[in-house]
Structures are given as structure tokens and as C-alpha cells.
Amino acid sequence: MRLDKYLAHAGHGTRSEVKKIIQKGLVEVNGVIIKKDDQKIDEENDEIIVSGEKSNYTKHVYLMLHKPAGVISSNYDPNHKTTKDLIKGYEHYATFPVGRLDLDTEGLLIITNDGLLAHQLLSPRYHVDKTYYVEFSGDYQSIYTALFETGVTLEDGYLCMPSKIELLEPQKALLTIKEGKYHQVKRMFMVLGMTVTYLKRVSFGPIALDETLPKGKFRPLSETELEALKKVVS
Predict the structure, then answer these.
(1) pLDDT tens digit string along 122-154?
(2) Which of 38, 134, 138, 174 shows the smallest number of beta carbons within 10 Å?
(3) RNA-binding S4 domain location, by residue (predicted)?
């Protein structure tokens, strides 16, 4: 990788800013001062010192975001705040959300720049579980449990994969699905005569939402969480 590209990716500034840092002789590679911004380096093995401090480079980042309602699961939207707006300090990484949550849906979103892992987690091949806490209006009948478990047919004729529902109270439940169709949870309840009034994703595969994480805040996944996440698609 070019030295200037590495420094920009490592968060030392924009490409133009890091070029100035290099030209000033503030960057060492394996103990040698480098003043050429196009110097090729081994980003994983070379020791890079910037202004006297060791630079650490991470190719991929994996973050847990507690998405609040009113935020779009996107990197850009002209009318709403986006999940990208919430990930401060990681602007130099080309991160994106793994899947989407509706504008009014809260809860767990995984943010990464690892395209391969994101593709695998969303692939129909792996059917990664996603669990939601649901509040709804309308009457829940006992027969609905069997319908969820065998597969609810949506209004457009699509037969959902079998899901698992746990009724917590008369109008509160935990629902686990293996897909991510557009407004799927809301549509599953709708065809059974109920209306979702509040929706929150509480887990994605083996990763549970950290309930100590305030809405709108994020943290890196722990090594244990990341290993568990990768294991479900291995």
C-alpha cells in the first residue's frame, strides 16, 4: 500500500494532510524517515512511526450500534440523520450497516467495512437468526404460534421461512426470523390482523445488543463476539 493511503486509512488526516506530514519528515518506516508519499509499505508488518508515536492499522472494523428511531440505515440521506452520522471517529473507514432497520425501528446494527463477512451474514445460504422485541395492537390467538413456526404467508403471496415466537405478555413478544424481507416483521403481524407499534432488534446471530449501550452510541465488537459472528458463516 502507498504510504499516504495507509496514513489516511489509519486516521492521520486526509490524503493532502498526510502528504504534508510525510514531506515534513515526521514519518518513519522501520526506523527510516520517509519523505516520498508514494513509498510502498507492508501495512501489516512494517513499523510506522508518526510524529514519534507508533501508528496502528486495522484493515477491518466491526462495530455494534444501538440504532435509535428516526435514523436511516444508510451512509447518506438528504432528509434524515443516518447511521454513518453516528459513527464518529471512523470516517476514514468505508463502513456500512449489515442489513437495514426501518426508520422507526430501534436496536442492534452491525457496522463494518468487511464486505465478505457482511455478504455472508445476509446470504440466504446461512439463514442467520435475527431476534426482535415486538409490541403490537390486536388480539394474538394461540393458533398464530403454529403459523409463525410453519411460515407466515405475506400479503403478496411470499411464504416466509419458519420463525420462532415467544409471547411475553398479551401484546408483547420476541420474534426470531431467518430472513430480512422489506418490513417483514410488520407485514407478518399485519396479515394476522395485528399492528406492530414498537420494534427493536435485540440480537443478530450470536450477538446480543449491549443494553448498557445508549441509543445512538456504538462500540467495537469484542474478540469473542467477532469470533462467534464469523463462526455462524464458516
Answers:
(1) 998 999 999 999 999 999 999 999 999 999 999
(2) 38
(3) 1-59
Structure letter (DSSP) for residue 80? S
**Cell numbers 426470531: residue:** 176
Architecture of 62-124+207-231 per CATH? 2-Layer Sandwich (3.30)
Where helices occur in the chain by DSSP H, the ranges are 3-9, 15-23, 83-86, 115-122, 143-150, 184-190, 223-231
Q: Return d(Cα 62, Cα 55) in angstroms, integer.
A: 19
CATH architecture under which domain 3-54 falls: Roll (3.10)
Q: Which amino acid is at 118?
A: A
Exactly one of 46, 77, 85, 102 is catalytic; name it.
Answer: 102
Give the C-alpha distances (Å, rounded to integers) separating 27 from 32, 92, 139, 169.
8, 19, 66, 61
What average pLDDT does range 65-88 have in this prediction? Answer: 95
Contact 73, 83 (CB under 8 A): yes
Range 130-204 has CATH code 3.30.70.1560: yes
129 is catalytic: no
